[in-house]
Specification:
Blueprint lengths: L8 E5 L2 E2 L6 H16 L7 E4 L1 H9 L8 H16 L12 E7 L9 E5 L5 H9 L2 H22 L11 H16 L9 H19 L7 H15 L3 H10 L7 E7 L10 E6 L11 E6 L14 E2 L15 H4 L1 H18 L3 E8 L2 E9 L4 H13 L5 H7 L12 E2 L1 H5 L5 E2 L1 E4 L2 E7 L2 H10 L4 E5 L7 H6 L2 E4 L7 H9 L2 E4 L5 E3 L4 E4 L2 E4 L3 E5 L4 E4 L4 E2 L7 H13 L3 E5 L3 H9 L5 E5 L10 H12 L3 H26 L3 E5 L5 H4 L4 H11 L3 H11 L11 H6 L1 H20 L5 E6 L5 H22 L7 E6 L2 H5 L1 H7 L2 E4 L1 H9 L10 H6 L16 H15 L4 E4 L7 H9 L4 E4 L4 H18 L7
Parallel strand pairs: 15-16, 16-17, 17-18, 25-26, 25-32, 26-27, 27-28, 28-29, 29-30, 30-31, 31-32
Antiparallel strand pairs: 1-2, 1-3, 3-6, 4-5, 4-6, 7-8, 7-10, 8-9, 10-11, 12-24, 13-23, 14-18, 15-22, 19-20, 20-21, 22-23
Helix pairs in contact: 4-5, 5-6, 5-7, 5-8, 6-7, 12-13, 12-18, 13-18, 18-34, 19-21, 20-21, 21-26, 23-24, 26-27, 27-29, 29-32, 33-34
The structure holds phosphoenolpyruvate and magnesium ion.
Length: 919
């Protein structure tokens, strides 16, 4: 039997399509959605999609296509010709094509596009006769030469011209010279004759620079375009973007070949982009921008400030300009109906591209639109309330990390009221940011990423070449461009504060200077952006946390989240203030109270001195004396936090100080300490140097301190239980959990448990209570502890996985020294993620899973949580749910993120179990 050839090309035209929106992996996002729109009967220019598998094969077989491809392309081109009633390459009535990339997930502007393919010297007279518009035809030809020579003949051929010598720039200079010679400023002022001369000059320049003629055969042009799109998948920009967005190289791009429609055929034509809802605020209004008499990328390129599609969405910048709604009311009405239909069909906010060719509208693209976290929450809740989606779907729609944007800092309103804005632009990315001005992406990357400075990237406009700097900057500010310009799209995707189209900025790149409102600012000067209002301020205005109390959509969503999740979320907090913040963010307890916190920062001088005294003590008597003095500090810190938490569990970890960090070295401090201990400085120095360790991370820390000096544990347990007892006597509810750190054997726990029992008995007796409720448990942060978890659980009522140390000891990567080598592991892809941020499921994760299994085998009701940094990382939170933890604990600010991730984990588990998902 003859083997069927693989389908490599999918055809689409209004009312018929071989693909659909679910086929993104094969057809790319653009191709799958073109097929879906076509199937819905929307006005989509006919065309076909070459699959991503062809791209993957192209790289596997060193630039060769499968042999069936040619025939399949010819077959579908024939179908397109049939639908259009015109032929590709027909000199009398040529059919022109566009060739565009389209990966599984959108990579805005990172790959290439070639328009007007099929226009040749032979076809020019025919097209002029057909359109009666020679200016349009020569303009289309000059665009083809510019794009094709740049994308196909230079970039795809691997030619890397010297700075400023690229073919596109050279052709742009020829055009600028022509405008100068004709005394005109706009491209549209050049006449047909001017453009005809220019096209001749372009072709001559292409021959001269690239050493070959501009192709004049439509089929050669088409295959050149297709190859160039595949090549652009491995282009520098695309690769850099994929690294940031973690898009695998082997996904490949599809190629979409489609009939050209023209937005530049005169004043009854135009092109635009829109969103079915406002992507910055989430408001339920059609939001879009367009340019009359323009083609293709003109709107997205951000070179002209575009007009708004409707009156409602006008800004101060385009208020005086006509909207599409007033300029072409009928077209607007049709477009509005189409966008509504599409949103209902997809049940999500979409980003659409359209072209109006002589009063007729065409849909060129639709995809689920990028949105910031604030808008994501509002849209999800609004859509659920209007029953477009279920509540569960609404919860699923918000990415846990995007929630951070709802919690974003903003410019302090009090300070802002008193400041006068320097300039106003379009609010492309919400939130507030301050930073030092930098003018280039490289400088932003150097200072922002390497030097860890707060910088704001200020540009006329950004291009895909700038992404590394945009990523490293706190915020982005551009002089040109609209809400759909490159800067706006990229910043929105990352949830970064961004202002675009700030026309008052006059950027002088030669002198690295910015003039605005009569002020000259230089690189390194501070500015502040309010990305929600589009306002730019001079200087460094303070930033404040947002008001979640009054954010109704956020509160509603989080209620749904909490009703869906099954795993608890606690916070790591060591002060009453942090504890209050944690409760406000929805924490159900404290999963890690690090007692050593009281020795850092404000108010720490006295307890730190006493801790040093304790560390440097030579005898138990001396140590007890120091501990006696330290005791009130320990107790009051714990008591205040227990009180704030009002009966919620608080896991208090006994001291885990890296001793070397606390011993003094300055002579004055040594003298003070020596005097208080009644020893000579020499003596004290001897003691201090005896504490020095070659490997402090594996040294005298954690429970080891409590084994060598049991009185250290005893005083702490007493502080905890006395604080709790006092609160109980005042009628308050408390739930302390005593946690022993850095344990590796059951013997250590047995030893510490005896201390706890003794102290508990004593406290109860002295304070006249029958018992003080508390749990006794351990951190599991050493691999041996996980492997012997069954024994550890005999004394432990709870485990809290310390995955920071567990990662350190599981990998053998020092937490203090990994900066020297970990970046290389990530860059080469040896490790997919930083294991200190996202839990390494197959290694460290296995230790966690094993530890839980063994522990619960011995103690069925063993309570299990995590308190390493991973507790706030969405992927790790999902893992914690899968291995059966009772709760995760993370920094207060990440508590909402963890709550949402826990709800996602529960929904994913439900979907895997194929259980019904009623609301
Ligand atoms: C841990 O090791 O994961 C942990 C929470 O403890 P620390 O970071 O204080 O060592
Ligand atoms: Mg630890």
């Amino acid at each position: 039997m003859r083997k069927l050839s693989k389908k490599l090309v999918y055809f689409f035209a209004p009312g018929k399509a071989q693909g659909n929106a679910a086929m993104k992996d094969l057809l790319g996002g653009k191709g799958a959605n073109l097929a879906e729109m076509a199937a819905l009967g929307l006005p989509v220019p006919p065309g076909f999609t070459i699959t991503t598998e062809v791209c993957t094969g192209y790289y596997k077989h060193r630039g060769r296509y499968p042999k069936e491809l040619k025939a399949q392309v010819e077959r579908d081109l024939g179908r397109v010709e049939q639908v259009m009633g015109r032929k590709f390459g027909d000199p009398h009535d040529p059919l022109l094509l566009s060739v565009r990339s389209g990966a599984r997930s959108s990579m805005p502007g990172m790959m290439e596009t070639v328009l007007n393919i099929g226009l040749t010297t032979k076809a020019i007279p025919g097209l002029i006769a057909k359109t009666g518009n020679p200016r349009f035809v020569y303009d289309a030809y000059r665009r083809l030469i510019m794009m094709y020579s740049d994308v196909v003949m230079e970039k795809a051929a691997g030619i890397e011209p010297a700075e400023g010598r690229g073919i596109r720039l050279q052709l742009e200079r020829l055009m600028a010279r022509m405008k100068e010679a004709r005394g005109v400023s706009k491209d549209t002022d050049l006449t047909a004759e001017d453009l005809q001369v220019l096209c001749d000059e372009f072709r001559a320049r292409v021959q001269e620079v690239l050493g070959k003629p501009f192709p004049d055969d439509p089929v050669d042009q088409l295959w050149g375009g297709i190859g160039a799109i595949f090549q652009s998948w491995m282009g520098r920009r695309a690769v850099a973007y994929r690294r940031i967005e973690k898009i695998p190289d082997d996904w490949g791009t599809a190629v979409n070949v489609q009939v050209m429609v023209f937005g530049n055929m005169g004043d009854n034509s135009g092109t635009g982009v829109g969103f079915t809802r406002d992507p910055a605020t989430g408001a339920n209004v059609f939001y879009g921008e367009w340019l009359p008499n323009a083609q293709g990328e003109d709107v997205v390129a951000g070179i002209r400030t575009p007009l708004h599609v409707n009156e409602a969405g006008k800004t101060e910048h385009n208020r005086h300009l006509p909207s599409l709604q007033t300029a072409m009311p009928q077209v607007y009405r049709q477009l509005n109906a189409l966008q509504k239909k599409l949103e209902r069909h997809y049940r999500d906010m979409l980003d659409i591209e359209f072209t109006i060719e002589e009063g007729r509208r065409w849909m060129l693209q639709c995809r689920v639109g990028k949105r910031n976290g604030v808008a994501a929450v509002k849209m999800a809740v609004d859509m659920a309330e209007s029953r477009l989606i279920t509540r569960q779907e609404a919860v699923r729609r918000v990415r846990p990390d995007a929630l951070i944007q709802v919690l974003l800092p903003m410019v302090d309103p009090q300070a802002e009221r008193n400041a006068r804005p320097l300039a106003k632009g379009l609010p492309a990315g919400p939130g507030g940011a301050h930073g030092m001005i930098v003018f280039t992406a490289d400088e932003a990357a150097r200072r922002g990423k390497e030097l860890k400075e707060r910088v704001i990237l200020v540009r006329n406009e950004t291009s895909p070449e700038d992404v590394h700097g945009m990523h490293a900057a706190q915020a982005i500010l551009t002089a040109r461009g609209g809400m759909t310009s490159h800067a706006a799209l990229v910043a929105r995707g990352w949830g970064k504060c961004c202002i675009v189209g700030c026309a008052a900025l006059d950027i002088d790149m030669d002198h690295r200077r910015l003039c605005v409102d009569g002020r000259a600012l230089r690189e390194g000067d501070w500015i502040t952006l309010n990305g929600t209002a589009g306002l730019v301020y001079e200087g460094r205005l303070p930033l404040v946390s947002p008001d979640l109390e009054h954010n109704q959509e956020y509160r509603r969503l989080m209620r749904w989240v909490d009703s869906l999740r099954k795993m608890g979320v606690r916070a790591n907090a060591d002060t009453p203030q942090d504890a209050r913040q944690a409760v406000a963010f929805g924490a159900e307890g404290i999963g890690l109270f690090r007692t050593e916190h009281m020795f850092y920062g404000e108010g720490s001088a006295e307890p730190l001195f006493l801790l040093r005294k304790m560390i440097a003590s030579a005898t138990e008597a001396q140590r007890r004396k120091a501990l006696d003095e330290l005791f009130p500090f320990m107790k009051s810190d714990i008591r205040a936090t227990l009180q704030v938490m009002g009966g919620r569990p608080v896991t208090i970890r006994l001291l885990d100080p890296p001793l070397h960090e606390f011993v003094p070295h300055e002579p004055a401090r040594l003298k003070e300490l020596a005097d208080s201990l009644g020893v000579s400085v020499d003596d004290l120095e001897r003691r201090v140097s005896a504490l020095r360790e070659s490997n402090p991370m594996m040294g005298h820390r954690g429970v080891r301190l409590g084994i060598t000096y049991p009185e250290v544990s005893e005083y702490q347990v007493r502080a905890i239980l006395e604080a709790a007892a006092e609160l109980i006597k005042e009628g308050k509810r408390v739930m302390p959990e005593i946690m022993i750190p850095v344990t590796c054997t059951a013997g250590e726990l047995e030893h510490q448990l005896q201390i706890c029992r003794r102290v508990h008995e004593d406290v109860c007796r002295r304070l006249g209570l029958k018992r003080v409720p508390y749990l006794f448990g351990t951190m599991i942060e050493i691999p041996r502890a996980a492997l012997t978890a069954g024994k550890m659980a005999q004394t432990s009522e709870f485990f809290s996985f310390g995955t920071n140390d567990m990662t350190q000891m599981g990998f053998g990567f020092s937490r203090d020294d990994m900066g020297a080598f970990l970046p290389a592991y990530l860059k080469t892809g040896i490790l997919p993620d930083d294991p200190f941020q996202t839990i390494d499921q197959e290694g460290v994760g296995e230790l966690v899973r094993f530890g839980i299994e063994r522990g619960r085998a011995v103690r069925k009701d063993l309570k299990v949580g995590i308190c390493g940094e991973h507790g706030g990382d969405p992927e790790s939170v999902k893992f914690c749910y899968r291995v059966g933890m009772d709760y995760v604990s993370c920094s207060p600010f990440r508590v909402p993120v963890a709550r949402l991730a826990a709800a996602h984990a529960a929904l994913e588990a439900k979907a895997r179990g194929k259980q019904p998902e009623g609301d």
